[in-house]
Amino acid sequence: MENIRNMMFGTNTLVELDNGKLTPGINLDNAATTPPFKAVVREIEKQLQCYGSIGRGKGQKSEHSTEIYVEGRDIVKDFVGANDDRYTVFYTNSTTDGMNKLASALIESPNDVVLTTRMEHHANDLPWRERAKVVYAEVDALGRLIIDDIERLLIMYGGAIKYVSVTAASNVTGYVNDVHKIAKLAHRYGAKIIVDGAQIVAHRAFSMIGNTPEEDIDFFVFSAHKMYSPFGGGAVVGQAEILNEHIPQFYGGGMVKAVCDNSVVYLPAPDRYEAGSPNYPGVVGMLNAMKILKCIGFDYIKNHEQLLLRKTLKELRKLPGIVLYGDSNHIADRVGIIVFNIKNIHNEIVAEYLANHHAIATRHAAFCAHPYVRRLTKVDDPTPCESPEGMIRISFGIYNDEADVDAFLHAIKALLFCENLQDELRNNMTTDLLLGKPYDRG
Question: How far is CA 432 from the centre of its chain?
Fold first, then answer.
């Protein structure tokens, strides 16, 4: 197989350091967005040569694009192990878009009860908060989801919980949840399960079909930009029968069979969830990225990530002043994500130092998961509501290697053992804040 690093755009791109030097950037922020495969971009460029309106024209280009778009649903279903006539696929712009469309469709009353967890990204929390009554399962001291707490709440609400919505893998700690076990519990107590798949699709093989029908996943939502495809894109894979009983609060052309002066006849799913012109380049890229990931193989991806995780955590545990979050000893249930702080040095200072002195891209603050980050850092919920200070996150992609890890560890050691550098960084940060430096969007 071609060297994976050479399969990516941007791995050799030069970035400018504070001293003016140009050097190749090292991306350790893959949990936010991954660089695209070169083959994905080539496929998008190829298909744009024959691009026409989707489902709305009789020209050759329109019919060609429509065929790729429609047949792509089967590629998506196969990728997430949903090769079953019960399921359909509608395309979205992102996981956030998909969750909002689901929430706007499935929730029928503010009194509907949704169970989610304190581990969730805001995309799997706020859409439910704004429309329904939400109850939350807790995490333990190391940040793992307490599945027994899910069952406790399901029992407590006596069948009133309509949906259990949970992440397959945390974007903060990388923990992989046993969503099939959770599905079995949800179904036992009369609820349907929705899985946020944003952080799992590029890291582990996933199947919506469980070992038994009770373990099947009802809805699965994910983004393409976290699986090496640009231009947005994503999908919801869900049970067609349920989707046809509802309609999202997102209206326009393409979702209707007929519109009269005083009535509308809507098309069945997936069309009723895809109003407006679709993001065709995003779909093309996503479908191609799926093929490449399957070719590389998820066993390879998992083993490679575990290698990088073990090496990085082993070395970080040796260093004074490093505070690691989550379980850094038993990591088999973690995808390639590490979160940490350095005592007495603000996380933003560390992140800026890594970027501006060593060309290492990371993420800092609270990763759009504020309640979870507060629990990990042992900070109480504030009044009035404010974002937590958070931590630094490094996250690996399939193209990262041990040289990237070594560069990161070298940079951290240089910071830890140079007090003058720490003072300089603190002074620069104070100046930046006084000048109105932009804040993190977490």
Answer: 30
Tell which CATH classification among 2.60.120.680, 3.40.50.300, 3.90.1150.10, 3.10.420.10 matches the domain 4-30+297-434: 3.90.1150.10
Query: How do strand 22-24 and strand 14-16 relate by DSSP bridges?
Result: antiparallel
Rounded to 5 degrees, what angle do the CA atoms 414, 416, 419 make? Answer: 95
Q: Where do you find CATH 3.40.640.10 in the chain?
A: 41-295
Query: Strands, DSSP E only, in 161-275?
Result: 161-167, 192-196, 219-223, 234-239, 256-259, 264-266
Q: How many CB atoms lie within 10 A of CB 356?
A: 16
- State the first-to-last Cα distance of the chain, in angstroms, to the nearest integer: 38
What are the backbone angles phi and psi of residue 106, rounded to the nearest 5°?
-80, -30
3-state helix, strand and coil shares in percent for the chain, rounded to the nearest 5: 40, 20, 40
The pLDDT of residue 1 is 42
Q: Cα–Cα distance between 40 and 102 in angstroms, integer? A: 28
Instruction: Write the CATH number of the domain with boundaries 41-295.
Output: 3.40.640.10
Residue 79 has pLDDT above 70, yes or no: yes
pTM of the model: 0.96
Q: What residue type is 428 in one-letter code?
A: N
Residue in the structure block whose two tokens are 């496929």: 43
Alpha carbon distance 234, 165 (integer Å): 18
